[in-house]
User: What shape does this take?
Amino acid sequence: MAVVQTNPPVSATDSLHQRLDSTWREPSGFGGWFKRVHHTTIGIRFIVTAFIFFLLGGILAVLMRLQLARPENKFLGPDRYNQFFTVHGSTMIFLFAVPLMFQGFGIYLVPLIVGARNIAFPRLAAFSYYIYLFGCLFFWAGLLLNTGADRGWFAYVTLSGPDYSPGKRVDFWAQMITFTELSALATAICLAATILRHRAPGMSLNRMPMILWEKLVLSFMVIFAMPAVMLSSSMLLLDRTVGTQFFNPAEGGDVLLYQHLFWFFGHPDVYIIFLPGTAFVTTIVTAFARRHIFGYLALVVSTISIGFLGFGVWVHHMFATGLPQMGESFFTAATLMIVIPTAVQFFCWIATLWHGRVQFKLPMWWIAGFFFVFMIGGLSGLMLASVPVDTQVHDTFFVVAHFHYVLIGGAVFPMFGALYFWVPKMTGRMLNDALGKWNFWLFFIGFNMTFFTMHFLGLRGMTRRVYTYVPEMNWGWLNLLATCGALLMGVGVLVFILNFFWSRKYGAIAGPDPWRAGSLEWATSSPPQSYNFAELPTVNGREALWDAAPNQPVVAGIREDIRETLVTDSLDGDPDHRMESPGPSAWPFWAAVATSGLFIGSVFSARSVLYTAVPVAITLIGWYWPRWGVSQRRKATEVWSE
Assistant: This one.
């Protein structure tokens, strides 16, 4: 293995492409669909599936807004409305935001940006998709069978306990958490390992693009935050199914323990959703300002600071629970402190645009929308950091408005910007500019009509999670305005879907780098080949393409007849050793099927865990059973000592 400068003849290059394609090509056919483990395949599956559930969650939101459009409406009954708002919130948080923003884009982009041929632990990445998919189907099956969760997306006890929620509705919600958070944990391990050990030579930590820093911080946030919500939901499930008393005060349990565990995950999860959006903003701003990001070190430090401080503000969701005021004051201070690193990021983006030569292409429209919307959400968040204000508006539509300004502003606007930016890389076709602008303005106007109006509804006393109201409250015209805005947002999303399918067939050919951006994913074809890079690249700066030398070296010595990858040093990105990447396999799919059987069976019978654990063990043995050819190659290359 060596780093060399080469200019091979055309015939040699064609032969190299053929050999690499033969080695890295994904299996075809129906059976091959379940064996594919390449990161581009898994990443696109995550993005498409999560976007579908974004649409489903949006449909539920529109139906709820139609119910609230006028007082004493009979469009939805109270039971169906309770199911809809619970499934809507749970879908948007657990089935859309994290899977698309963190997992989908992360799995697809990170190996390309670090200059690798595949993600670390590709079979684990495939497993994370399948377990996520089965969790989505399980959760939505409950709604379609009229046993959908109906206690809110956070399922507070004692309302969600066995005494007040008989049946299996809450059990469906609790086990969905286990599905999705296991998936997120698996993805976090894959992304962290890829960023730390598979970077291109020369990509030291101080040369990593900001999107890699944010994915790395997010991976560690997921690893520390997700076990808390898995623990709380599992304890709730045990209380409901086998008679434990974790949250029963009459038996020594603690109701607030559930809230502490849930929000210890819940507020970092806000930043797990928000930070991918900031990564997209940084990347898009850099590309269209035509200059390196201003304040790189400040952005890195602020990202790490948000990762730490995000774990220290969870109690601001609990100011109305009667906690000691001294403790509440500390969390008020922490909530105000976390504004500082967020503001630093805004100043760096503005300075980059100020000193750059801005090209206002379609992705930048969505970034401009993000600046406007998220700023309003951040300011209302500062208001809620005050205990007296929070106590007054707690559980009103003011909080709903703030929540959506932060999450839609911090996630959905950057998501659309990222889709317009990277879909040409995924499909090889440019999206239509005119339809894209219609998509933006319909969504932007509709969003502000809906959620800015909710601030006034909350200040007028309208509480959240009510399915109807009387005319004397004078909320009708505001609710009607909010409903019209929701319909506009829906039309805007439909325009995007039309744009995507039209452009897939008739859009302009994108080429490798249609935006003239600087990171490594634009150094390969659109869409990428099965092996990503014919010759593994090296890096000479933070924007690899902009900073490349006239005859930039490439990596030589990597085998082409097997799926061999380069492992580099975590600190400086120096070549360390080579390893063989696992090939296509159906075992991750079958392991996900077996694990899903265990999770679903435990909802109906605790004893089923004993029986379903057997197929889980069998599939894991099959997954890790050594292959003869691989073991022989390892024995021939590794040094064995007594």
Notes: Residues 472 and 568 are 68 Å apart (CA to CA). The two ends are 27 Å apart (CA to CA).
